[in-house]
Amino acid sequence: MDGIHDVGGMDSFRRLPPDQPDDASPFHHEWEGVVQALYLAGLGSGAFHLDRFRYELETHEPEYHLETPYYERWLTAVESLFDEAGVVDREELLERARAIEAGEREVTEETDPERLPELLEGVREVYMSEREGEVGKPAFSEGDRVRVRKEHPSSHTRCPRYVRGCVGEVASYRGVHVFPDANAHGEERAEPLYNVRFDSGELWGEANTDGDGLHIELWEPYLDSV
Amino acid sequence: MAEETPEPPETPNPDLRDVDPEARARALQSVLVEEGILSTDAVDEVISTYESDVGPMNGARVVARAWTDPDYRERLLEEGISAVAELDVEVNDEVMELRVVENAPDVHNVVVCTLCSCYPWAVLGLPPTWYKSPAYRSRVVDEPRALLREEFDTDLPDSVDVEVWDSNSEIRYMVLPQRPEGTDGLSEDELAELVTRNSMIGVERLGGVEA
């Protein structure tokens, strides 16, 4: 989808925020670490997967996306997905959050040393996007010139706007990987994946860039031969 | 041929967004603990892992080894994560495929994720705030030299090509910086101390440039 998340080449965001968090802690607040754990719990328990999570973040309104801190947006997405998976009820969650905020309710504590290793095993599977032995021969090989299809799906895609319509060269074949555009919407299928290099001038116009090349992974359905 | 567009998800209830995020995070944590999906010690361990075990020091050790052992360097460039696992470092489970791209006197590499915030957690830990910011993600793809100069004091001459890597798939990228000159007598541990997080993202440069 053509959302606010797809920012490559946009102007006027101005200066970078300060270099924080630092090596001492990757979190600004401890609850951000809790959100990281909730996210891993969602992936590891199979409540949702990575492409669905990304799509959920992308559906936030642009104003909310830009004005809300990173982990707070993650929390909003994780809540919705656990609700969608039937694990939590949004109304109950709201009630409980308000009670905790007001100091009227304690956080439930329970120890189970088996939990994390089991969750991490599930997380590992989610991140493993390569599917060996699926799909036939890749259509392109190293050195082929390819043009990115000019498609503007209103659903999830990992083909950013700035490469669409541009011609690049296949730098490497990466094997067959789960296709995010289908997977985000419940259909797991794998497609050949390529690393494609574009001349920066092809992407932006020679006068508008000071870079030389850009490499990006593109799935076969994004590409046409030139 | 227009493909059928799936129904977009429901708009989230704005009420939950009005509550303090800490209370929301603890509320969801509580429900998941009660459901047996999560445990208190699992949450604590996730936090402490990111705070003390995974971070740029792991990437720095990998780089220092690659500088001192040519065979290891070959394996690192070829196989990524399995070469990282050879060293006794805490490898984060989430990152399965790592590609290491090597700087040279006439090439400089820099890594970004324009669509979200993909980052090589296994070797660098969690990303700094600026890496996740629209300001970095929007500009590094079209004006990498200006961004590196203005934001990181990294001034690259025209003799050095700038190559940008947009990590939009589950393949993660890390830059292998050049070994700085005048470091011949240093041990691997001493070398690792020279390797900054930013040099492995590619917004800083170690080592010389082609004249």
TrEMBL record, chain A:
Residue intervals of the Nitrile hydratase beta subunit-like N-terminal domain: 1-105
Region span, Disordered: 1-27
GO MF annotation, one: transition metal ion binding
Catalysis: reaction(s): an aliphatic primary amide = an aliphatic nitrile + H2O
Gene3D superfamilies per the UniProt record, alphabetical: 2.30.30.50, Nitrile hydratase, beta subunit
InterPro entries, alphabetized: CN_hydtase_beta-like_N, CN_hydtase_beta_C, CN_hydtase_beta_dom_C, Elect_transpt_acc-like_dom_sf, Nitrile_hydratase_bsu
Keywords: Lyase
Family statement drawn from the similarity comment of this UniProt entry: Belongs to the nitrile hydratase subunit beta family.
Protein name, per record: nitrile hydratase
Organism from which the protein derives: Halorarum salinum
Gene: nthB
Automatic annotation (TrEMBL), chain B:
EC number: 4.2.1.84
Record domain Nitrile hydratase alpha/Thiocyanate hydrolase gamma: where: 21-203
Pfam families found in the cross-reference section: NHase_alpha (PF02979)
Keyword Methyltransferase: no
InterPro entries: CN_Hdrase_a/SCN_Hdrase_g_sf, CN_Hdrtase_a/SCN_Hdrlase_g, CN_Hdrtase_asu/SCN_Hdrlase_gsu, Nitrile_hydratase_asu
Keywords: Lyase, Metal-binding
Catalysis: reaction(s): an aliphatic primary amide = an aliphatic nitrile + H2O
Annotated spans, Disordered: 1-20
Keyword Metal-binding set for record: yes
Gene Ontology molecular function: any one: transition metal ion binding
Family: Belongs to the nitrile hydratase subunit alpha family.
Protein name: nitrile hydratase
Source species: Halorarum salinum
Species lineage: Archaea, Methanobacteriati, Methanobacteriota, Stenosarchaea group, Halobacteria
Gene that encodes it: nthA
